[in-house]
Amino acid sequence: MSLSFEGKVVLVTGAGGGIGREYALAFAERGASVVVNDLGGNVKGGGKSSAAADKVVEEIRAKGGKAVANYDSVEDGEKLIQTALDAFGRIGEILRDRTFARTSDLDWDLIHRVHLRGSFMVTRAAWNHMKKQKFGRIIMTTSAAGIYGNFGQANYSAAKLGLLGLANTLAIEGRKYNIFCNTVAPLAGSRLTETIMPPDIVESLKPEYVAPLVLWLCHEQCQENGGLFEVGAGWIGKLRWERSQGRTVRQKNQPMTPEAVRDQWDKICDFTDAAKITNIQESFQSCMNVLSQLDSEGEVNANPTAAAASVTSAEAVGQKLPPTTFSFTHTQCILYALGVGMSTKDPDHLRFLYEGHQDFSCLPTFGVIPSQAAMMDGGLSSIPGLNIDFTQSNLNATIADVLDKGSGAVILLDVNTYSGDELVCYNQFSVFVVGAGGFGGRRTSEKAKAPVPPPKRAPDAVVIDSTTRDQAALYRLSGDWNPLHIDPSFAAMGGFKAPILHGLCSFGFAARHVLKQFADNDPSRFKAIKASVTLFVAFIDFLGGGLQSELVFAEISRRIKDLGPELVKKVNAVFGWEITKDGKNVAEWTIDLKNGSGSLHQGPYSGKADVTITVSDENFMEVVQGKLNPQKAFFSGKLKVRGNIMLSQKLEVILKDHARL
């Protein structure tokens, strides 16, 4: 299906010739209304004439297209945008393309005014219009000189790289308004290159070989945002930043010296297993890792992104962590039960919440709390005021194995908890250390406790539960003091919109439901459990079989009941779902967020749904868990959409917060 720009308005600056002209013609050919902006300057940037823009407009109109000319400087951004509004009533895409030849006679300010300030002025003038219509596509044009530098072009290179920084920030700020901004670095024959390149090379670098990339990036189907692309001669490549793993060259309370930098220089500059940094949070994370290690260990690991990198597998296996003692009373047991969602609203929970209950017990999964203390040297035993009438547990932790997963290392840690000589509980933790892989170790271990494979039948029980807004704040009182779970600013540095729930809290939620459903809340009947603690997906896998999507639709139903009127106001659409398995339709669902207070029911919609989505049960779960990008699923054929495809973007309102799903 060909890409259409019917109903879209495109502003192309520098469109009187070269790549800009090709952009304008290509957009018009596919139905866009085009504003052709060009000062009509000569190859050195001088002069002014309306002829260049007028000629392109005539070409477009002669082919039945829609176009108007504009002759203003890009520094008069409001005038350019007003031309689009007066002629076509809206503005959708902005393409910035304007280059100069060698400009030794032009000063720094002129180059920056035209390239960097001009782009800022035009984009600022269009920004609020794009926000109001909830759609915009912006293409900035940089160059290889800006990306890599070039002899004799200091002013031009600085301006062009400045455009990339501007585009990156616009991509971040515009995302929630469906305004995407990308940057292209084209190599194409033009008025400039034809004077310095042989004719056959200029012919192979025709602007026609650049325009298709720009059209795709501007289309409403394209979800690329914040990308940087080199393009020419029919070839397209995406660029990204890389950073070496680096080395920390100081220790706590010790000066940092240039000699330490010199001694680690080769490792600082070693790009083996380089990190692909995509945002400022990831950039800042290494420094945070260093500070954390300084505070907790006193001596910083050489590689802040690979905490285990300085210990080889052979050296680490069998090493014992220093024995620790964990003190607790019934208070800690009750606090943990509250932290994993138990409530006096459920009479069955009272035995875990009231120390005077005849069957007062501690949840079996409380065993992770003292074990965590062994790993992190934390726990409530260090908090003043909790040393009355306590029981003491001694913990012995041993590194069972270290596995090489390539991008990271997995440390298998065995923790045994004793009360005197009696073994109270045993935990095995798999700790994934990002960036610590590549040391040539084994990928699997016979020492890892394997989970029982899920049975091939429908779930024996389906349970839906909800965490409260303060769940993480309550759970952390059991000893996991990581500020990631309470401090918004710290969470933001980790790339999260808000503090996140502890994985072990989700684990506790899942385990207590298993205890209730299959052991009648009797801890003595609970032997062992192994599961991932990052998401509730572990619980789903533990139950096994059936359609996993049923659990998600049950959660969606709960959300609609809680927020129905608000969702109807935001979305105003009916979504039909066709869930398949082994290539056959096995379930249909309707999410009605257009009528009444909203609803969800199993089966097809009685009328015509605005959007119908067909996807397999497996791929549906991948999408809602954030493992599969829905746009990639669509273009790869894993997810099929009928109806108004743009409305499908509004599903984020009910599918967000993957951990809850």
Automatic annotation (TrEMBL):
Pfam families, alphabetically?
adh_short, MaoC_dehydratas, MFE-2_hydrat-2_N, SCP2
Query: Which keywords label this protein?
Result: Fatty acid metabolism, Lipid metabolism, Lyase, NAD, Oxidoreductase, Peroxisome
Origin: domain of life: Eukaryota
Query: What are the TM regions of this chain, as residue ranges?
Result: none
Location in or out of the cell: Peroxisome
Pathway assigned in UniProt: Lipid metabolism; fatty acid beta-oxidation
Q: Which family does it belong to?
A: Belongs to the short-chain dehydrogenases/reductases (SDR) family.
Name of the protein: Peroxisomal multifunctional enzyme type 2
Species annotation: Sparus aurata
Q: Which gene encodes it?
A: HSD17B4
